[in-house]
Amino acid sequence: MNFVATVDGRVQRVELRGGGGRYQVMIDGTAWDVDARGTEPGIYSLLIDGVSHLVDVAPRDESWVVDVGGETYTVQVEEATRYVIRTKGGAAGADRGQTLAAPLPGRIAHVAVRVGDHVKAGDPLVVIEAMKMENELRAAAAGAVTEVRVEEGQAVNAGDVLMVIG
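and the corresponding structure tokens:
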């Protein structure tokens, strides 16, 4: 499985293979063999390439606080595809408008705007159903919707232009 972990603001790609407590973890191209066991709620014993670590993990808002080896980290983890959708929805700079492109193939589940609508940064624009998940794409900047090139139920390919905001 592929994930993206943001550790204290730094983005890292994580690939996880294995199961049953034994994993191969690749972080930004570096691989580790990991034996992971929960010892009690929120406490884990990790054996990473033969070195033992005791890790305390606690939820905080939409992230996790991880204490290991006397150091504390704030970690957000999300499935890699969802990260791509959230961060690369075709946004351009606010001064150039936004061309919203499909980040992956899917089906349009909902179109939230029409030509002429004014949107603010963060407003929902369209929902794409892909890989059994619904992914909401939002405006990167304020502007007026100048083109809507899709409708509900339509299949789209990665890179297809969905709409343009000027």
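(Above: one complete record from the training split.) The chain has two domains: 2-80, 90-165.
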